[in-house]
Design brief:
This protein is an all-alpha fold and 322 residues long. It has three domains: 141 residues, no CATH class; 57 residues; 85 residues, no CATH class. It has 13 helices and no strands. Helix 2 packs across helix 6.
């Protein structure tokens, strides 16, 4: 049975268009959507810039609270009703079909698993809190902060994957990165949905007007044609570690805990960098730009807290999807 097709958003090119559509539909969702898109774009660009501007992974700061920090900068000090309204818009946006919405949905998936396994965070198992609005608001804020942890992981994984697959996107010059993005999307233009085609055309027009007399404009064509890739020898291990790092942080896993969990998810569990705890720790720091800031105590049972979440996240991957 095929999953239901995700709907496309109307293309909103400015806040004026979002306001007009919200008034017409009597629905503030479209205004919220534009703000959410801008926030998520900033979070993604921060992850990309860590790779583009810091060639040494040891110097990178990844999964260190970027999405939640930028959330506060983007939306300010919201009242409880305002926060609840924004949370509903984020949940609704995650059902649409565009790159930003899909990233939001990707990060929501493990959050739902955490709720399903333990009842933590907001979800179907949450009791009716309508008579306790302050408690509900606190839960929504905590849920959103956790959602941001998973957004950081998703953005990190996208940046790490693209670092290997599309090196031209990681020029130290931020304008060239933007132009390379236009060229890379144009490679697969025929496969885009209507929203993405409209968004590409809008951005292409903007950048063409801004850079048509600049040699940087050549970056668009270079990105379209560039065959360059970097070798990615540990893609399966890297994918698991990056995407499970929110569990490492929440449950204070040791590198030994992480190694035990990752070994259950990969095809070659005894190969580098999972042969020894020290190797994995060095790989996290020197390849992935990840480091633990607190000491933990290894779980003697071999199943650290959160292990079930990791298994459920990567259950399809064990059949060769990673």
């Amino acid at each position: 049975m095929n999953p239901a097709k995700r709907p496309c958003l109307p293309l909103l090119k400015s806040m004026a268009e979002a306001v007009a559509l919200s008034k017409k539909e009597q629905d503030t969702f479209y205004i919220d959507t534009l703000h959410i898109h801008r926030w998520l774009a900033r979070a993604n660009k921060e992850a990309v810039s860590e790779y583009a501007e810091k060639k040494n992974p040891r110097q990178r700061s990844l999964q260190s609270g970027s999405a939640w920090r930028l959330f506060g900068q983007s939306f300010g000090d919201l009242s409880d009703p305002q926060f609840a309204s924004l949370f509903r818009s984020m949940a609704r946006l995650s059902t649409y079909d565009d790159p930003v919405s899909r990233c939001l949905a990707e990060a929501r998936f493990p959050l739902r698993l955490e709720h399903d396994c333990s009842g933590d965070y907001f979800g179907p198992k949450t009791p009716d809190l309508s008579a306790r609005p302050a408690e509900l608001a606190q839960l929504l804020r905590r849920t959103t902060e956790r959602w941001c942890d998973w957004l950081d992981a998703a953005n990190h994984l996208h940046a790490h994957r693209n670092w290997h697959h599309t090196p031209i996107y990681f020029d130290p010059d931020v304008e060239k990165r933007d132009l390379a993005g236009i060229g890379l999307v144009q490679r697969n233009y025929s496969e885009l949905n209507d929203w993405m085609k409209g968004a590409w055309q809008h951005l292409h027009t903007q950048f063409a007007e801004r850079h048509h007399n600049s040699p940087k404009w050549l970056t668009v064509g270079q990105a379209m044609a560039s065959p360059d890739k970097r070798v990615w020898p540990y893609h399966q291990v890297d994918t698991c570690i990056i995407y499970l790092w929110p569990l490492v942080k929440l449950h204070n896993w040791t590198y030994r805990d992480l190694m035990k969990v990752v070994r259950t998810l990969i095809a070659r569990p005894q190969a580098y960098p999972c042969r020894r705890e020290h190797e994995l720790a060095v790989h996290c720091r020197t390849v992935l730009g990840l480091r633990k800031n607190t000491r933990g105590k290894s779980n003697t049972s071999g199943r650290p807290p959160g292990c079930e979440i990791a298994q459920r996240i990567f259950r399809p991957a064990r059949k060769g999807v990673i």
